[in-house]
Amino acid sequence: MLVIILVATVIISLWADKNLAYKERMLFIPYRIKHHNEYYRFISHAFIHADFPHLAFNMMTLYFMGEYLYLEWMNIYGNSGIIYFCVLYFAGMIAATFLPMLKHQDQPGYRSLGASGAVSAVLFAVILWNPTLSLSLMFIPIPIPAYVFGPLYLLFEYYSLKKGNTGIAHDAHIGGAIFGILFVLMLDPSKGIQFVNLFL
Asked: Which domain range does residue 33 map to?
């Protein structure tokens, strides 16, 4: 299933780059959702990206983090692990739009795109699931424990959100992260206790 999501996203993103009229129809535009009932935009925006680096970064993160979590859940929950992963990704995709929807629903000019919110949900599900996992990301030259990366990431996103004018939907990243955390807590509440114990 992870491979299907990755391939579909890459194909649709590249196709939309050559068909800008359709790309416009797929953007997340809260105003059009509220005033024109275009609810499909809650999902469609995550299958298109601003440019190839945007697409590549999201899909690389999804592949490495998603594969780890997917295999973990398959080993523990069997075929139900597939369902849990799909719910995490697609519900995380929608949850990531909650804050932008509230903030921009009456602003016709606002639009966003990309799978970053859904990927953020997967990333933070991994962080809570295995907080001692070492994460190596392109902009961090050395591996760091997930439980260190997570809070730093959220602080950075919050600071960037307050600063504004970055051209990035930081509120979507935060919304996706919160959903990923809550989903894991719903699936296995003990994960929250284990995470907190790392700081005690």
From this structure: 2-197
